[in-house]
Please model this.
Amino acid sequence: MDKYLITGFSGFVGKHFLDLLELKGEAAIAMGVDLFPPNFEYQKNRNIQCEFMRLDLLESNAVQSVLSKFKPDYLLHLASYSSVSFSWKNPVLSFQNNANIFLNILEAIQIYNLPTRILSVGSSEVYGDIKTENIPIIEEQSLNPKSPYAVARISQELLSKIFTDGYGLDIVLTRSFNHIGPGQREIFAVPSFAKQIVEGHMRGEKSITLRAGDLNITRDFLDVRDVVKAYYVLLKQGRKGEIYNICSGRGVSLIEILTLMERTMDVRCVISKDPKLLRPVDNAIIIGSNAKLKKETGWNPEISLEQSINDILMDGKFKQNK
Amino acid sequence: MDKYLITGFSGFVGKHFLDLLELKGEAAIAMGVDLFPPNFEYQKNRNIQCEFMRLDLLESNAVQSVLSKFKPDYLLHLASYSSVSFSWKNPVLSFQNNANIFLNILEAIQIYNLPTRILSVGSSEVYGDIKTENIPIIEEQSLNPKSPYAVARISQELLSKIFTDGYGLDIVLTRSFNHIGPGQREIFAVPSFAKQIVEGHMRGEKSITLRAGDLNITRDFLDVRDVVKAYYVLLKQGRKGEIYNICSGRGVSLIEILTLMERTMDVRCVISKDPKLLRPVDNAIIIGSNAKLKKETGWNPEISLEQSINDILMDGKFKQNK
Model:
């Protein structure tokens, strides 16, 4: 019976990974750890055996205790302070909660000589400034980090390499691009749009005023359910020490997403530009290449953008109706 | 009156930098901080005003308190857990005491908006594995870190870049190669040889058994008194955001150093190979290029290898006679 330890369990991705394990019908034991308990059901109505434990990954003794007792076969490292803007305001906290937490995990696995395969979930932010000719971005692209957050993510990658080469740890790495899907917090653009549109719709409005930043930026959005499938397949088949982009391979502008939402909900939006949502140094276009992941694992994204948007809106409606 | 804050003050380099400030005859105030007080005189018989304060750079509140009160014009960041082998045994401690301590300093300077020019002293270890055709190593060489220590040093560099570009901090960076000179701890090869030879000499031996590792490795040794001159000139003239190799530009094998010592002391050594002193994955040859430093600052090394070796041996003799 395979044992999965999932850090950052209570976040957006944790629930979807648990759903996937359930779907696979594997005889598996999952243990989720996070600073705060999840706001989703992880035991009731589930066939899979799942425990949750509060854990601050900065506390190395606690990390060692949990890992040495649970002895996971697989460790999905989702935990991260993943906000770029937070990292500018609190560089020390951001750095510690990205680089140091990961290092504590690696040290625990090394000290207790655990046979754990680790998926180090990282971020496309490590690429930083990207010239148009380098799009779609491949894994060999040189790194040009532009935030304290991105530096912490690079440290995480370099430490993975050191622990793989030097201590023989079994680590596979990702650079994950933008995720979308049901359950995402509304601090991100797509769920924020969905929330505003659903609320307007519930009030019976046909023309909805929508607060937004720059709608012209193009990003590579992948549905979280396709993301967790990629994580699963990499845990099982990824090559030790290798880095894989996790992305859809195509660019979608925020204006396209908004248009899809308008059509689905049969409303029109009037944009109210919010200067607070504008980032001065953002890349206009970020698109990743998923060729390596596809070629090596056979993974393919299965959820269309239309379905993602529909499910996000339905999820928003459901929340409003509760 | 210029104020210098020197972290890692009690180490090998701190005393020599203070000596240099004294020599310059500048009206300067120096404050040294370290975990432990220095074992050299920093007040008595000195014209320069110098204070010492115990400080753990991991304690961000204490760092902020010291920096905001002292408001240094120049900060020489010598503090580091600089042992590669320690970083393999204690990766978390090593990483924290290299990357996190530096980040605490940067955050304090940013929060209090101090006009401090920082010299981020780093390490040639960031280059890692180097092919022979890339010797002498220039600053543009791609990095290939091979230890947790080297990863922490790369984090330090990347954070410097982020804080220079993003917050406007004034940081100059070094990649320092091997130092030698009077006062170095005997855990390093050159002072260890000197100690063994001086001790044998004091016992009246003409043939001295010397414990050593691989004597064929070639390194770029720079006298610490030339190192601190480079640090001084970079604090004054280095370009913000730039990285400079600190090195002699020439390679010397350990066997050459040993031969010099034998000649100076008129003894012969019989080598007793100590497997504990052999590092399995060491580069055979490391030589840096100091062309950038020379060109931009006019700095030139002034102390010959013969003089370095002589002074190290005399320093050892002095210690034995005390």
